[in-house]
Amino acid sequence: MMPTAGANSTTISYREACRQAIRDALLSDPRSFVMGEDIGRYGGCYAVTKGLIDEFGEERIRDTPLSESAFVGAGIGAALSGMRPIVEIMTVNFSLLALDQIVNNAATIPHMSGGQFAVPLVIRMATGGGRRVAAQHSHSLEGWYAHIPGLRVLAPAVVEDARYMLAAALADPNPVLIFEHVMLYNIEAALDPNVTSVDIERAKLRREGIDVTLVAYGNGLQKAFAAADLLAADGIAAEIIDLRVLRPLDTATILASVAKTRRVVIVDEAWRSGSLAAEIGMRIAEEGFFDLDAPPRRVCGREVPIPYAPHLEDAALPQPADIAAAARALVQPAKGRA
Amino acid sequence: MSAEIGLDHAHLHHLLRQMIRIRHFEAKCVELYQAQKILGFLHLYDGEEAVSVGVMEALGPEDAVVATYREHGQAIARGVGMDRLMAEMLGKAEGCCLGRGGSMHVFDRATRFYGGNAIVGGGLPLAVGVALGDKMQGRNAVTACFFGDGAVDEGEFHESMNLAALWRLPVLFVCENNLYAMGMALARAEAETDIARKAAGYRMPGVAVDGMDVIAVESAARHAVEEIRSGGGPQFLECRTYRFRAHSMYDAQSYRTKGEVDAWRKKGPIVRFQGWLRENGLINDNDICRFEAEADAEIKAAVLFAEAGTLEPVEELERFVTMERVPT
After folding, report:
1. Element (H or E) spanning A162, and its range?
2. Which residue from A59, A180, A228, B237 puts its CA 20 to 30 A from B163's CA?
3. A51 and A78 in contact (C-beta within 8 Å)?
């Protein structure tokens, strides 16, 4: 059996944090079970569920056929009949095969039924680019789901959130989608032994600064940290907000930071047009316009299907230098134009 | 006609009454639609009543139902109250879904009625999941999943059939084959038009029955439900039926001939069953008049209830988009 995080605050990976979270859920609630493609004997395509089938058996660690629509729909149905399913979809790209079930059933049934039924379902899936697997495994479509009323959409960007968001998601009576960025599975961190839960309501201030706010989520947070280091070398103190919750958006935390720094760069690996970054930018324009000293800026994915070749993929995704350049242009307009 | 069913007067009369209740309820819906009190789409079950009435007889209160968007008959046969159903059609706060669902999205927790579903094929994965949840919680319940021949065209049908059979889940798949998916004739949509045969591809027992014969449907459904309840896994029941009216309230019906519709009407489930009961001296005209009058009185009361209903305050618009707790 793998060790669980205890009072000794061992360093664990994001992947291991996800695994421990699932194990905790299975141990604490007999209604919970995991269902998805290759989560059992194979151990999970990103090895998150490795070993769980040996501990919990095939009833609760259910390998499914390659039928995204059927097993996601089955998760919704099982939730309706009293279970607490955790469904894994290999990547957000494959989730499109289950879009009907998620959007037309999970998100609508509570309201459409006049509150007679809830759908307490968690769907985890990998998202994002950077692994040189090209256009059908690399996109960031979480913003589409963040468009849908009835869903809660989470993006754990740090090990602590990977470890504790699942429990909060399972306690939510509504369908919750958790997006795990593929580039984060190997990051490691020591868990604070005093933290045993996290909220799934609020964005979080990850780094304080006074000159510019960087709003990011998922792997964008790592890139924002790198960008902030670059900016610090120039004497610019960037504040970093980790969105964490993509729906419902915690606008208040973003606005409070923008009111302080008066400048904002929104980082979003998804395409710019119709993006979550667009939504955040507009909320700032609507509610924080007079706090701004400069127009909000966005650093988004380039509008291409993510390509395979490393230099092309890197060019398609937001990079720390791009984020730093955007921030510099706001803080030092003259220098930014030069 | 099967001997498995109690063919006593009371039961036979009950079957006829159920079909009359549905037929007359929908006739009233047509009036209310023409008066613009019911809006949107209105998919009538006229001609298909024997399917729901027969299948529901095989279910108990512990069982679950996943329905289609042509589900007024399914709801009434399952026991959803006409008053709350009619109030829902009129968009009232007293409706079963507080006016949020309407004709195509009838839900009823008390009867485990998991919704009309207006996405063709969308209910099948849901039904598989309800059955999975019931099985994992040790309930000896069956989920009856209704869908039409159009759903058979969809990938979700095949995925769900496979998953239910693979996991031996207690699902009764009920295909209401009325020969048209909206205007698309079965023979123009399916390479294999013998729908029941498709079950064999999933090693699932499947039979086709005359869906215009309420006794045949009930008999087949009872047999299938018994098999499922004894742990035999899912069963497939194709009910061959016909929709007498347009897909929704009005269409040009350019996809079929008037002669075809008339021929089917002659073998309609109510006229046929009533005739059979009469021929065998199992019913008289007074019984029939009484059933019709009782149904009409029930419907009249439902309409009064619905019309007296209130409007959900607009302030409540966003209520239930997200739930504060899981209802129990």
Report:
1. helix A159-171
2. A180
3. no
pLDDT of residue A9: 61
CA–CA gap between residue B81 and residue B63 (Å, rounded): 17
Q: Is-contact A80 A109, C-beta < 8 A? A: yes
Identify residues of A whose CB sits under 8 angstroms from chain B CBs.
31, 33, 59, 64-65, 67, 69-83, 85, 100-101, 104-105, 109-118, 120, 149-150, 152, 173-174
Burial of B223 (0-12, 13-18, 19+ CB in 10 A): middle
Distance between start and end Cα atoms, chain A:
58
Residues of B in Cβ contact (< 8 Å) with A83: 132-133, 136-137
* A137, A180, A239, A313: the active-site residue: A137
* Residue A4, pLDDT above cutoff 70: no
CA distance B203 to B235: 10
CB–CB of A76 and B129 under 8 A?
yes
Q: How confident is the model at residue B72 (pLDDT cuts 50, 70, 90)?
A: very high
User: Are residues A149 and B119, on separate chains, in Cβ contact within 8 Å?
Assistant: no
Q: Is A311 a catalytic residue?
A: no
Shortest Cα–Cα distance, A318 to chain B (Å): 33
Nearest chain A CA: its distance from B7 CA (Å): 34
CA distance to partner chain A, nearest, from residue B12 (Å): 33
pTM: 0.95
Determine the 3-state secondary structure of A122 from DSSP.
strand
Least-confidence region, from A26-30, A116-120, A290-294, B2-6: B2-6
State the CB neighbour count (10 A cutoff) for residue A221: 28
User: In this structure, what are the phi and psi dihedrals at residue A43, rounded to the nearest 5 degrees?
Assistant: 95, 10
Q: Tens digits of per-residue pLDDT, A151-203?
A: 999 999 999 999 999 999 999 999 999 999 999 999 999 999 999 999 999 99
Residue B261's closest CA among B269, B250, B253? B253
Q: How far apart are CA A135 and CA B222, in angstroms?
A: 51
CA distance B248 to B94: 25
Model pLDDT for residues A97-111, shown as the tens digit of each residue: 999 999 999 999 999
Chain A touched by B193 (CB under 8 Å): no
Instruction: Give dist(CA B159, CA B162) in Å, integer.
Output: 5
Contact A187, A174 (CB under 8 A): no
